[in-house]
Request: fold
Amino acid sequence: MNRLQLVAETPRAGLWNHRFVITPHVSLSEREIVKVITRARHNPYGDNYLAVSSKTAQMRAGRIGREILVLVGLGELSSEQHEQAVQLLKKKSFELARLVTQTIDWEIEGKQLFVVRSELAKWEKDFRHFPTFKPKKQISLMRWWLDKLITNSSNNPILSR
Reply:
């Protein structure tokens, strides 16, 4: 993943209570979305994401739930960038609250666990100046061994034949 993406979970999805809100062009699988939101609930700043959340009452049941907005694909941030990203996410979380309480028709869209909304794609543009995550190159022990074997093949009597 080389770009920033917003994903959210709301407990205010009408009759269905909890639903995920995603962009139309999300590159994460449903499983990855659930995984990152689960991690973000416990730790709002991870290796490649930053999250803000707030407690809110469910629309029908009145129970308290946690609404969370996660920016995924985020690279290493300076302390100033971190604070800017958090403040921007907080601002977008207010827009998320309006989206889930005033815009989305949960009777229609709530039938799907993952609700696709173009608003999140528009919000993502406000984050484009932040660095994106670049995974550290990991090499397996087997790959290392094979590379070593091939590199030293002239010294290896079996491979030099």
